[in-house]
Amino acid sequence: MPHRRSFAFAACFVLVAACGKSDAADAAGNPDSLAADTLAGKSTLALPVVGEEVRMGDLVLTVTAQGQLRTDASASLKAEASGTVQRMLVRAGDRVRRGQALMRFDPRPFDLAVDEAQAAVRAAEVSYMVEIGPDSIATGKAPTQARRDYAISRSGLEGAKVRLARAKLERERAVITAPFDGIIERVGTSVGERISAGQEVAVVVDLSNLRVEADVLEHDLPLLRVGGEAFITVPAAPDKPVHGRIAAILPMVDSTTRAGRVIIRVRGDGTMRPGMYASARLEAARLPNRIIVPTSAVVEREGRPLVFTVVDDHAEWVYIQQGRSNGRDTEILPDSATGEIPLTPGMIVLTEGHRTLSHLAPVRLTAKREADPN
Predict the structure, then answer these.
(1) Whole-angstrom Cα distance, residue 81 to residue 144?
(2) What is the domain class of 74-107+174-205 according to CATH?
(3) Disulfide check for 49: which of 6, 36, 212, 353 has CB 3.0–4.6 Å away?
(4) Fold (topology level) of 50-71+208-369
């Protein structure tokens, strides 16, 4: 038995060796077979990558600046009448709309004041009629304007109407409303509290209409213009720039920092808060009608810049001639030998997962980002 097992093991070893030699011979006889298997994805796993389209557009050259976010509207709402708080309708952090009721006083004192003023008006109207009635009956003619004015003054009708209007205004002030859309920063009173005119009820902050007050070095100020584009990022969302516009370039330059101040208007996106520090990229020049790729797509091999494109699920590198860049986008220039640009709008260039790729490496496009039109 031992001899038979040894013999069988040796026979299997010889057979496996022969098969290995045969496969090696086939590979040696057909050197393209390994490459074909690789291209077919049989021996190499497709690598996940992220791509973005090449686009035709304007390349916006920028100046960088730092600043702080401010809001265009932050209102401390104060009571305009005295009264007892009947209902507090919001809490800190609530989102409110313009005209929304935030707090209500007990309405009974205000209703009574209106009723009293209306009674005074009615009494004054009776006095007025008593004043001019006998003259109208005696003469059979309507009283003159002078006579009516005298009767109004004698009856106190004019003053009674003013007091009625004031009482109605006070009743309207018994409800505190939001002056604009925003978020409640804090609430300064509670139900049952007796408050006086001028006491703070709540603070509302507008998080939609924001501005950045950015410091720009004096040698960069002449490059900027009012109306130019700006891209704002905050530490809370460093990868999500928000589009804004340069609203003003202030005239003074700080003699210590040698920087001027630029006001940038920006629409809040929910992550921005007044008081945050912000980084801004401000439009300094615009190069129109350029072939543009994301700067992250450009890599170097042997000192030459190139990008990877995707063709039939494979990464193909394309050597390029770089132009100017704003740090986010890079211009592609015509090739110095052929005079042609090797990329066309709509082609996909890789922006993630491409740093270590080789030419013709199989890839799997997991995401395609939309090109920023700006």
Answers:
(1) 41
(2) mainly beta
(3) 353
(4) Elongation Factor Tu (Ef-tu); domain 3 (2.40.30)
